[in-house]
Amino acid sequence: MALPIPEFAVRQFETQWNHVVQQEVSRLRNRVTTDSFQGKEKVYKDLSTLVWSERFGRLGNSLPQEVEGYKRKLMKRDFFCQVIFDRKDRDYLVDELTRPGSETEMAMRMSWNRKVDELIATGISATVLGGPEPYVTDITLPGSQKVAVNFAKPGDTPANVGLTPWKLLEAKRILESHDIFLDGEGAEEVFIGISPKQEIELAAYVAASPNDVWAKMISSWMEGASKKLFGFNVVKSNKLLFDAGTDIRTLPVWSRSGVMVVPENMQIKVDELPEKQHAIQLSAYADYGVIRRYEERVVEIAVDESP
């Protein structure tokens, strides 16, 4: 027979707060180039590509190339996160959740890590500002740097599909057409962001065609025998973008030097608010900015994640 616990019995609480299962660290932060600077923005300058010509005769005419300069700017953006506790909350609640290094502060930092991944994933594909002064000309990623959602291997009928070996090979081809090579001498460090759904799609490809040459390469990566997938360093993230109102997700492909970010400068403050009857408020502030540095070093792969 179950006996009721009397109301006057002492109730004991666990000594610390735990976090709901969630991404705790940034998965993209260390895969881009970080540049620290003073002020609100920094303008980057690039020279046009120069070419050599062969001289065939004596006393030929000069054919100088005009040097062109290109500019784009990285701007710092200001973010904040705030939580509040009533003054009459139990002492253990306020003490444990508002002290420096508390579970609340940890939750803020983990939430910021997820936000950083979202900002980087967005910034890789976003419109960049540059051009002539005042550097507000829109610079978009050209269609030639995108692999369509219905991209198929030569000879097949185009249809909306998920991630396939042929889409990976096309992304590699686009990069290498700009001399961004993924293997061999002078190879660059290039990353691809995928969601867990794409890993399942690749596993299904292996299961359907285990003896296929591409299936063997995928299988090698999935088993951990190869660190790279078709030359790409794979980063799994759930922060990759969907086209609004669709099941089409954009997988970013980028070289480390192709994306620039501002290192965040996070500050956390604890305040008593007299206008809120001395409630306790925790505030976190951080600056961050992301730009696509070079279009040639970035590719988008569209995949269909519909059920």
Description:
This protein has about 300 residues and is α+β, with helices and mostly antiparallel strands. It folds into two domains: about 30-45 and about 70-130 and about 260-290, Major capsid protein gp5 fold, CATH 3.30.2400; about 140-260 and about 295-305, 2-Layer Sandwich (hypothetical protein PF0899 fold). The protein contains five helices and 16 strands. The protein has helices at about 90-100, 105-125, 165-175, 195-210, 215-220; strands spanning about 35, 40-45, 70-75, 75-85, 130, 135-140, 145, 190-195, 230, 230-235, 250-255, 260, 265-275, 280-290, 290, 300-305. A six-stranded mixed sheet has the order 7-16-11-8-10-9, with helices on both faces. It has a three-stranded mixed sheet with strand order 1-12-15, with helices on one face. A three-stranded antiparallel sheet has the order 4-14-13, with helices on one face. Helix 4 crosses helix 5 (about 215-220). It starts with about 30 loop residues before the first strand and ends with a strand. The mean pLDDT is about 90.
